[in-house]
Write the structure tokens for this entry.
Amino acid sequence: MSAFAEDFPPPPFRGFPPDALVFLQDLSANMNKAWFTENKARYEHAVRDPLQAFVGALSEALKDAGLPFRGDPKRSVFRINRDVRFSKDKSPYKAHASCALTRSGDKMAPGVLYVHLHPLGSFAASGFYSPEPDALQLMRAAIAEDPKGWTTTLAALSKTGLKLSHDDTLIRPPKGFDHAPPEVVDALKLKSWVVRRPIPTKQLASPALVTSVLRLARHAEPLLRFGWRALERHRPAI
């Protein structure tokens, strides 16, 4: 059971305790239900409850800043349990903790602000990660039809030190985009449009983490606005 009831706001976010990353490291070496059950109180105290408090604090900060993200201390946090039904890796737990905020509050909605805690490196990210096929096609169509708008978006990201991740990309332009303007060909090959910044371990222990992730959301806003417009403007009427 959570340290705070659903009808009440989470406590103030004061940072993650030192045991947060230690717990995740220990979990990665003890991927079994017996160990997790024995250490569940550690998980709740060091990881889950602070992460829920962080979501609450970040949501309020985003609202005050006029940025279009919503989060819920419970529903925005990803479960530590893995869905192993269709995976060759049958490890029952994730070795990281994470949360996601979106315009609707549904953490699976397109256009996300994401925070990932891991002993080997934590980060915050924002953008459109592995969109569904229809949304993927709509994004590509918008980029191909408005190359100037897309390059302007990239320039705005660059001014704040952000650039798109190219971890998830095709070798060739996707079908139907063979004659796209050359300045957007690389963008059309992407299967995700995401920017990210590392989170120093020291920052995890501070309430200033909220301000840092808020800054990423503000800097990533041109990418999100472009994507949201693409999905709304190009989506066919039902």
Summary: The beta strands are 97-102, 112-117, 122-128, 193-199. The domain at 19-234 is CATH 3.30.930 (BirA Bifunctional Protein; domain 2).
